[in-house]
Amino acid sequence: MRRKVGISILSFVLVLPLVAAAPPLIADVPVPTGFMSQCLPTSVHGLVSEEISAERVRRQKANRNATFAAFSAVPYRLSILSFVYDREVAAGEAADENEMNDAINEIMSAHPGAELSTRGTATLPISGVSTEAEVALFFWNSEGTEYGSFLWLVPRQTHYLKLRVTYTRPKGDQGKSMEFVRESTYSVARAICSAR
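Above: the chain's sequence. Below: its structure in token form.
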């Protein structure tokens, strides 16, 4: 059963100004005629665009025709991965639930001791358009460092958009780290070229 996550719970309450200049875009992966897809930015103001190896691009494309972009920032060791990959046209709510559960299980497996703090729905400003998304928030400790990670999943007609946002949570500074994560996540979401 899904529940609506109040924006205040996730501390995603501020609306940020649009990035003034439109970023250059990664060309979309080829899709069959008549199908819509999304494109991802190659740069986002205030974030570092991470270089992606040709081998990783090839592996992602082989996995459900995925394309992705990666961004980072020094504060809070922020890492944002954004993915667009195929979704069955006939997929419904049950398939979307399975997709989210699979993504949650991947994160829990990759980070032993991780805690799923909250899960539900919230909105992201995809291309500046408020768009409903599934969201989950995780916390874990690794070698004395506290981490947080948001998982966002946006089902579209023919594809999924997924964002994975990971950051550190210094003691006494959790509010500032969350604010930085919110601003950065919204900047990436606004730079994605389509909300459809």
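The first helix runs from residue 7 to 10.
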